[in-house]
Amino acid sequence: MSASTSESHIKASTRTEFGKGAARRARRDGQIPAVIYGHGNDPVHITLPSHQTTMAIKHLGANAVLDLTVDGAESLALVKAIQVDPIKRVIEHIDFVVVIKGEKVTVDVPVLTVGDAEKGTLVQIENNTISLEAEATHIPESVEVDIEGLKAGTQILASQLVLPKGSTLLADADLLIINVTGEVEADLGEIAEVEGEEGESAEAASE
């Protein structure tokens, strides 16, 4: 992930009005209220163009780094928290953290599986994200785990993940990420056994 893409360059405006009423007015005007923290500076309250910002975050994915211009000054800002309207599903507020090119940041990156485990197995992703340290302008979009042909009983720990170049694992090395079980067959067998017992009980009760 990089802040060099054109979608990541966004012009913001300093926010002078605060409170729920001001936030609603900003959203009505097609703006997203936001705040920028970091590097010992006082928080900077801003508004961002809603459509452009939403599309940039969708394109860049989790841990998006945007190149914000606020009152003529440019800064790289990492998305740390997003508030979304539960009904309209639009972004209501964003928290950013200022980052400097080349510095390392701590992020939670999604875990994605690639391939298919052995037939009849159940693949459980025990942890959907993994905590990493990565360069602010090169945050990986995801960590892929190859599960092709894995057998029941296979477990993949955080220490076994193949991390993107430049990333360092921060999570516990023994953290369970993927657990492959034979529960599909076991569950079907248990259901058949229970149904058989219920059928026998019903027959006995009718005699």
From TrEMBL:
<dbReference type="Pfam" id="PF14693">
    <property type="entry name" value="Ribosomal_TL5_C"/>
</dbReference>
<dbReference type="Pfam" id="PF01386">
    <property type="entry name" value="Ribosomal_L25p"/>
</dbReference>
<dbReference type="GO" id="GO:0008097">
    <property type="term" value="F:5S rRNA binding"/>
</dbReference>
<feature type="compositionally biased region" description="Polar residues">
    <location>
        <begin position="1"/>
        <end position="16"/>
    </location>
</feature>
<dbReference type="GO" id="GO:0003735">
    <property type="term" value="F:structural constituent of ribosome"/>
</dbReference>
<protein>
    <recommendedName>
        <fullName>Large ribosomal subunit protein bL25</fullName>
    </recommendedName>
</protein>
<dbReference type="InterPro" id="IPR020930">
    <property type="entry name" value="Ribosomal_uL5_bac-type"/>
</dbReference>
<comment type="function">
    <text>This is one of the proteins that binds to the 5S RNA in the ribosome where it forms part of the central protuberance.</text>
</comment>
<comment type="subunit">
    <text>Part of the 50S ribosomal subunit; part of the 5S rRNA/L5/L18/L25 subcomplex. Contacts the 5S rRNA. Binds to the 5S rRNA independently of L5 and L18.</text>
</comment>
<feature type="domain" description="Large ribosomal subunit protein bL25 L25">
    <location>
        <begin position="10"/>
        <end position="96"/>
    </location>
</feature>
<feature type="region of interest" description="Disordered">
    <location>
        <begin position="1"/>
        <end position="26"/>
    </location>
</feature>
<comment type="similarity">
    <text>Belongs to the bacterial ribosomal protein bL25 family. CTC subfamily.</text>
</comment>
<feature type="domain" description="Large ribosomal subunit protein bL25 beta">
    <location>
        <begin position="104"/>
        <end position="181"/>
    </location>
</feature>
<dbReference type="InterPro" id="IPR020057">
    <property type="entry name" value="Ribosomal_bL25_b-dom"/>
</dbReference>
<keyword id="KW-0687">Ribonucleoprotein</keyword>
<keyword id="KW-0689">Ribosomal protein</keyword>
<dbReference type="GO" id="GO:0022625">
    <property type="term" value="C:cytosolic large ribosomal subunit"/>
</dbReference>
<keyword id="KW-0694">RNA-binding</keyword>
<dbReference type="InterPro" id="IPR029751">
    <property type="entry name" value="Ribosomal_L25_dom"/>
</dbReference>
<dbReference type="GO" id="GO:0006412">
    <property type="term" value="P:translation"/>
</dbReference>
<dbReference type="InterPro" id="IPR011035">
    <property type="entry name" value="Ribosomal_bL25/Gln-tRNA_synth"/>
</dbReference>
<dbReference type="InterPro" id="IPR020056">
    <property type="entry name" value="Rbsml_bL25/Gln-tRNA_synth_N"/>
</dbReference>
<dbReference type="InterPro" id="IPR037121">
    <property type="entry name" value="Ribosomal_bL25_C"/>
</dbReference>
<keyword id="KW-0699">rRNA-binding</keyword>
<dbReference type="InterPro" id="IPR001021">
    <property type="entry name" value="Ribosomal_bL25_long"/>
</dbReference>
